[in-house]
Design brief:
The protein is an alpha+beta fold. The chain contains ten helices and eleven strands.
Length: 286
C-alpha cells in the first residue's frame, strides 16, 4: 500500500458527488482528500485501513470520514485474480465543509452538525438501524438531483448528528502525518505484509525493502502509523483469523497457523491482547 496519495474528486456541476462503484475490486490505492465521505459496501470483503486502524470489512460496512484521513478498502486477494464470480459494489458520497457557504456551519442551529464533522476526523463506523438508513439514503441519492439532493443530505446528516450508534475508528488524537509528495516507501511495506502475513516476516527484510536500517525503519513506521510495525503485522494476522473463525470451517489451531502465528499459545495470547477475548470466546459470541 502506497504512502497515501492525494485524490482529486472535485465535481464541476454538483455540490455533492455520489458514485456507484462496481468493479472487480475496490481502489487499491491508500489515499486521502479534502472531502467528507460516506461510504457503504454492498458487495465485497477484505481489510479496511483508516488512519491508524485496521479492520476486516464485508457487505454492510458503512463509514463516515472527515477530510484528509488516509483510507483504503483493500479487497481480498481473490478479487484480483480475474474470477468473474467475485466483484465489488459500493456507494460513496463526497461533500466539502463549505458546500452551503463558508458561514453556514457557524449558525447556532448547526452545533450538533459541527460536532459530527469534528468526530468524523477520526472516522465513524455505523451499525444497526442507522446503518441501514444510511445505505437506503445513499441508494436514493444516486437518483436525486438538484436542490432535493442537498435537502436529502442535510436530513441524513441531521440524523447522524443526533445518533448514538456510531463508533470512532482511528485512535483519539490521530493526525495524518503524510505529505502528498512522500515516497512510495509505505506502499511497498504494506503490500509486502498483506502478501506475506501468513509466513514469517523478518524486520530486516522489510527495512531493506524500505531502504532503511532496522532502527530507522521502526521509528519511521511508528511516527506515521501511530503503532509499531509488529503491532501492524499482528493486527492484520488477527483480522484474518477473525474472518476464518466466523466462517467456522477450520479448527482454531489451523486458523492460528494459516494466519502466520508460529504456535497456538502465541496466537491465543495475541488474540486476547488485540480482541479482548480468546478465539474460542470470540467464535462463541458471534
Amino acid at each position: 500500500m502506497k504512502a497515501p496519495i492525494h485524490k482529486n474528486i472535485e465535481s464541476q456541476v454538483r455540490t455533492i458527488t455520489v458514485h456507484e462503484l462496481k468493479e472487480p475490486h475496490f481502489d487499491a490505492n491508500w489515499h486521502f482528500h479534502p472531502h467528507y465521505q460516506l461510504f457503504t459496501v454492498m458487495e465485497g470483503t477484505g481489510k479496511r485501513f483508516i488512519g491508524d486502524s485496521i479492520h476486516t470489512f464485508e457487505p454492510g460496512d458503512t463509514v463516515f470520514l472527515g477530510p484528509d484521513v488516509p483510507h483504503l478498502w483493500r479487497s481480498d486477494a481473490v478479487y484480483f485474480e480475474g474470477n468473474a464470480a467475485f466483484s465489488t459494489h459500493g456507494i460513496v458520497l463526497y461533500f466539502q465543509e463549505d458546500f452551503l457557504g463558508k458561514d453556514f456551519l457557524e449558525k447556532p442551529e448547526m452545533l450538533a452538525l459541527r460536532q459530527l464533522l469534528i468526530d468524523s476526523k477520526r472516522g465513524i463506523v455505523y451499525k444497526g438501524e442507522v446503518r441501514e438508513h444510511i445505505r437506503q439514503e445513499l441508494q436514493g441519492l444516486l437518483h436525486t438531483e438538484g436542490f432535493k439532493s442537498i435537502l436529502r443530505l442535510l436530513a441524513l446528516l441531521d440524523r447522524l448528528a443526533h445518533e448514538q450508534e456510531g463508533t470512532p475508528i482511528a485512535s483519539y488524537g490521530y493526525v495524518n502525518t503524510y505529505k502528498i509528495s512522500e515516497t512510495e516507501r509505505m506502499q511497498k511495506v504494506h503490500n509486502y505484509v498483506l502478501q506475506h502475513f501468513a509466513q514469517e516476516i523478518r524486520l530486516s527484510d522489510v527495512a531493506s525493502l524500505a531502504g532503511m536500517s532496522e532502527a530507522a525503519f521502526c521509528r519511521y513506521f511508528k511516527a506515521r502509523s501511530n503503532k509499531t510495525f509488529i503491532d501492524f503485522v499482528n493486527e492484520i494476522r488477527i483480522g484474518h483469523a477473525c474472518k476464518l473463525l466466523l466462517e467456522d470451517q477450520w479448527t482454531i489451531a489451523q486458523i492460528a497457523y494459516d494466519s502466520g502465528f508460529d504456535s497456538l499459545s502465541n496466537f491465543n495470547r495475541n488474540f486476547k491482547k488485540y480482541i479482548g477475548h480468546t478465539p474460542r470466546e470470540y467464535k462463541g459470541n458471534y
